[in-house]
């Protein structure tokens, strides 16, 4: 069993990005500028956005955090999105989800300029993903593909079972693993809450991608020997023995599943760090696609 170490892999990519920034400086070119828009004070979102800003600083990107109260109107937020769309100094930006209930998340997503949509959620970028055209891949799936590449894991001809069909991870990952490219060329089964005989299906998988947010859902009796397991689940569980009062758990019963795997991601330290670094890669790519 080998760990798919997102921490060390993301560290290596950050160094590569830092070198790319230094080269841009030497060439007199613009430095990538990422803007993060945060609405409200959700604990998870605050932590996540904070990590993005810190990563920008470490690799030499310009970064701006725009923090708005959760009382902001939908129109005000859409006006802000329009401003960022038209700001030539901004290469890419994200509007952190979830948003307050009185704001239509789909409307906000559609308002973002696809050329600055470094989260990869706009329908145009999702369409480019399906057609294998240039664009931005959703950050978490992109980070997972990078792990496959960096560890040289064979995906061609493999049976890949994706558990969960969210628009952020499960659905796009199922498409990308089936594309005629590497990583890809897998035979993909997308499973979800209505899937019958889930255990029997997952037992056939050479590659398992679990993204449902249910702690310990994937147990050893659902995994065949030698399988590759990517755990996207991140759930906070109350734990008084921990300094923060909680621990982070993935979808996988790691202790019992890991011995059966050829490769497996830990939680934390697996897919999570790759999501943030993928966002940085998309921001640099935005400059290249826009000819800056």
Concise account of the structure shown:
By secondary structure, the protein is an alpha/beta fold.
Walk me through what this model shows.
There is one protein chain. The protein is α/β, with parallel strands linked by helices and 292 residues long. The chain has 2 domains: 27-113, Leucine Dehydrogenase, chain A, domain 1 (Rossmann fold); 139-272, Rossmann fold (3-Layer(aba) Sandwich), CATH 3.40.50. It is 39% helix and 17% strand. It contains 10 helices and 11 strands. It has a 6-stranded parallel beta sheet. It has a 3-stranded parallel beta sheet with strand order 3-2-4. A hairpin with a 7-residue loop joins strand 9 (235-238) and strand 10. Helix 2 crosses helix 10 (271-289). The longest helix has 21 residues, at 6-26. The N and C termini lie far apart (43 Å). The mean pLDDT is 94.
- Individual helix count: 10
Number of strands: 11
How far apart the termini lie comes to: 43 Å
Taking the sheet with the most strands, its summary is: 6 strands, parallel
Q: What are the segments in which pLDDT stays under 50 over at least 5 consecutive residues?
A: none
Architecture of the largest domain in CATH?
Answer: 3-Layer(aba) Sandwich
Give, in spatial order, the strands making up the sheet with the most strands. Answer: 1-11-8-7-5-6
Name of the top-level CATH class of the largest domain: Alpha Beta
Order of helices and strands: EHEHEHEHHHEHEHEEEEHEH
């Amino acid at each position: 069993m080998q760990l798919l170490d997102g921490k060390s892999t993301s560290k290596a990519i950050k160094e590569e990005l830092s070198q790319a920034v230094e080269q841009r400086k030497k060439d007199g070119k613009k430095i990538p500028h990422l803007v993060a828009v945060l609405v409200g004070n959700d604990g998870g979102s605050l932590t996540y956005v904070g990590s993005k800003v810190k990563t920008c600083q470490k690799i030499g990107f310009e970064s701006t955090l725009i923090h708005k109260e959760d009382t902001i109107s939908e129109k005000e937020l859409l006006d802000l999105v329009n401003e960022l769309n038209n700001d030539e100094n901004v290469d890419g930006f994200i509007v952190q989800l979830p948003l307050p209930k009185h704001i239509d998340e789909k409307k906000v997503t559609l308002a973002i300029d696809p050329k600055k949509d470094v989260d990869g959620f706009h329908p145009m970028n999702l369409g480019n993903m399906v057609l294998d055209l240039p664009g931005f891949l959703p950050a978490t799936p992109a980070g997972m593909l990078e792990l496959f590449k960096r560890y040289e894991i064979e995906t061609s001809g493999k049976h890949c079972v994706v558990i969960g069909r969210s628009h952020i991870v499960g659905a796009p990952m199922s498409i990308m693993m089936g594309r005629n490219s590497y990583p890809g060329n897998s035979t993909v089964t997308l499973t979800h809450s209505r899937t019958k005989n889930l255990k029997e299906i997952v037992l056939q998988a050479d590659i398992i991608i679990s993204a449902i947010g249910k702690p310990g859902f994937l147990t050893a009796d659902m995994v065949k020997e030698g399988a590759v397991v990517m755990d996207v689940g991140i759930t906070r569980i109350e734990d008084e023995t921990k300094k923060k009062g909680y621990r982070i758990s993935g979808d996988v019963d790691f202790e019992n599943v890991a011995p059966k795997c050829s490769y497996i991601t830990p939680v934390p330290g697996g897919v999570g760090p790759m999501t943030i670094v993928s966002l940085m890669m998309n921001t640099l790519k935005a400059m290249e696609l826009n000819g800056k």
